[in-house]
# Entry
Amino acid sequence: MNDILNTILKDTFSHTLLNHRVKLLKSNLLKTFFGGASPTLTPSDLNWLKSFPESFYRNFNKDNVYQIFSDLEQNYAKLPILTIYLAFEPDEATVANIGAFTRKTFGLPFMLDIKLDPRLIAGAALSWKGVYRDFSLRTRIEEKKEEISQSFKKFLRQ
# Structure
């Protein structure tokens, strides 16, 4: 089970994308084993499904597919979530870069939940296991507000 989840997580970083990809994989396998309508696939989804080696698909058969996905959904629901607040809405490539960097840095499986916070200035804020830390320029400006204000006053007096 962990091998299947780890294979999916290799290039899946956000909670939203994980949900989408698990549903996509499940519907594709159900169609393969039981027939029915083909799910509509975007080129990105199709490439992702084709990225798995043949040995990955050998883990599934018509007798175990429902149980595997039930177990998968229970396991990935337990993954910790790192919430990242950004001042912009990142594209898929940016999320992948952030995800690869954070997993390499922290070395453990977790999901990203990226949220938009337009109040941030140049940087990010993170929330991990209930602890919120703002690493943006907004926080640094707030910390130095008095000093900045005094500098402007000196500048204006000249």
Notes: The radius of gyration is 22 Å. The chain has a mean pLDDT of 86. The longest helix spans residues 15-34. The longest strand covers residues 81-86.
